[in-house]
Specification:
The chain is α/β, with parallel strands linked by helices. The chain contains six helices and six strands. Strands 1, 2, 3, 4, 5 and 6 form a six-stranded mixed β-sheet that branches. The longest helix is centred in the C-terminal third of the chain and has 21 residues.
Length: 160
């Protein structure tokens, strides 16, 4: 799976306007909806909110990965963004969130969903990627950071 092919510059918003967790989630769902990536915007939003109510998706390093399974989409879809100001996601490390990646997939497509979650988490473990995300001032710059870090991470894995 190549994240940069799912997270094209059109799927990335820098900066996000919303200033709270559910506002950010709604903004990213609406971005996917505006790109005709969703069958049912409201069902998709409800799935993510329901998942977020179970347990925070703020995983640390300033990253949140809100996600949900829904019939509101036909395949794995993603959107990402950087809030204009850090957002409290009740993250596991207590730090506010500066980078958000939203994932939605149909209930019967668990494999791609889990692969995407794992790949995003792996990239955020790379200090170079976190620094590139912090510096990115546009969707295009953030997309370039994802593509470059993904290529570098793939290269390291192939050397093992």
């Amino acid at each position: 799976m190549e994240l940069h092919k799912l997270l094209t510059p059109e799927h990335i918003r820098v900066p996000l306007v919303a200033t709270d967790k559910f506002g950010v989630i709604t903004e990213l769902v609406d971005l996917l909806h505006s790109l005709n990536q969703l069958r049912d915007r409201d069902a998709a939003l409800e799935a993510v909110k329901r998942r977020e109510a179970e347990r925070t998706t703020g995983i640390g390093y300033g990253l949140a990965i809100p996600h949900g399974k829904t019939d509101g989409c036909g395949q794995l879809v993603m959107a990402a963004g950087k809030p204009a100001t850090p957002v409290d996601f009740q993250s596991l490390d207590g730090r506010p969130v500066t980078f958000v990646v939203l994932l939605l997939s149909p209930p019967d497509q668990t494999g791609p969903h889990i692969q995407a979650l794992a790949k995003i988490s792996r990239l955020m473990n790379l200090e170079e990627f976190r620094n590139a995300v912090e510096r990115a001032e546009s969707g295009e710059a953030l997309h370039r950071a994802i593509a470059a870090s993904e290529a570098a991470d793939t290269g390291k894995q192939n050397m093992r």
